[in-house]
Amino acid sequence: MSFSRGKKACSIPKQHTKVPGMENQEEGFHVKRSPSSPQGAPKKRSAFVDITNANKTQVSNHTKKEKATKKTQKSSTVVTKNEANLKKKAPASLEGEPEKMKVGRLPVEEVEESPPKDPPCGERQQVPEEFDIDKEHSGDCFMTSEYAKEIFDYLKGREEKFVLQDYMHKQPDLNKDMRGILVDWMVEVQENFELNHETLYLAVKLTDHYLSSTVAMRETLQLIGSTSMLIASKFEERCPPCIDDFLYICDDAYKREELIAMEINILQTLKFDINIPVPYRFLRRYAKCVRASMETLTLARYVCELSLLELELVPVRASRLASACLLLALIMKELGGWTAILEYHTGYTVSDLCPLVRSLHSMLAHPTDEKLKAVRSKYSHKVFFEVAKIPVLDVQRLEEALK
């Protein structure tokens, strides 16, 4: 299985045809191509001309008057029937006030005395003042501080639906080393296309969930990975790469029809439920609780991204993995341990995270495969504060910090 690397193919800009007499028209004016125009040039048209019959129906003034008369007669008939129905259904206490019932509503005096009540709804959870990390963004509509905690509580609740187990024993033609090579290649794809980190995490999740439900051959493993990246890009990116870009990075090993068929297959297998919680989102949220610096957050992200290569960590819930990565980063940077505010927002105690933190530390100290260098190379760059070059913490110091 050859995993080629490449840069994103440049797309050729579309040619725009200038139309005589339209140089001063606004750019947003709607145009369409007409088969009768020479060389298929755009032809100016009115708005909604294609979805109405305005250009086909010519109604005379006499016909308009007839329709208006019929409409008036029909309206008066409806009003008469409505008044009769209101009189039939009027309560006994209001039968003496027919002039107020003509408008079909209660008198103003009664509305003022008994105003309508809002329908009952669930009360918003009150966050203690010392644990409220969203109050500083209360005026920022983009931060959704009013219900940010509810959003992450909802995502944490959805984790139960996407719990996976080690599925490799179901794959007779695959092994964990092949999966590691695939994920390492997907990291390079994310870098080359400059995609969001959420896209990478979601693509790995989609791959694992698909492989846990379907037997795949090693020849199609790269196709599954690239198709998962395509789906995740459509879900996360503003301008996702096109199909030709993903065919290019696969060195044209697959055809367009194969990639589209695999996309349909993955979506149908997952029942189109691809909003899978990923640890990267939780990590950013939890780092905000302790006002972690960008360097500390990047170190936690490095540990979290390395965990994508490990098949043994696939069953771990995203929120728990994010919490353990942050705790390990705080210990490595000597910024203290697990605080009460972190325990409140994550729902995990130090004892809950200790086994996972030890596993992550072992992963840093003893990599499973030295050949998989995409993540380490990525986080050795100055843009990521060269966090991959930070010395691994001593085991004894780690145990002291966890106590």
Automatic annotation (TrEMBL):
Transmembrane stretches, by residue range?
none
Print the keywords alphabetically.
Cell cycle, Cell division, Cyclin
Locate the compositionally biased regions of type Polar residues.
52-61
**Disordered as annotated region, ranges:** 1-101
Q: Which GO terms describe its molecular function?
A: cyclin-dependent protein serine/threonine kinase regulator activity
- Biased composition (Basic residues) is annotated at 62-73
Q: Which BP terms does GO give this entry?
A: cell division; mitotic cell cycle phase transition
- Asked if the Swiss-Prot or TrEMBL record annotates the protein with the keyword Cell division, the reply is yes
Q: Which residues form the Cyclin C-terminal domain?
A: 277-393
What this protein is called in its record is: G2/mitotic-specific cyclin-B3
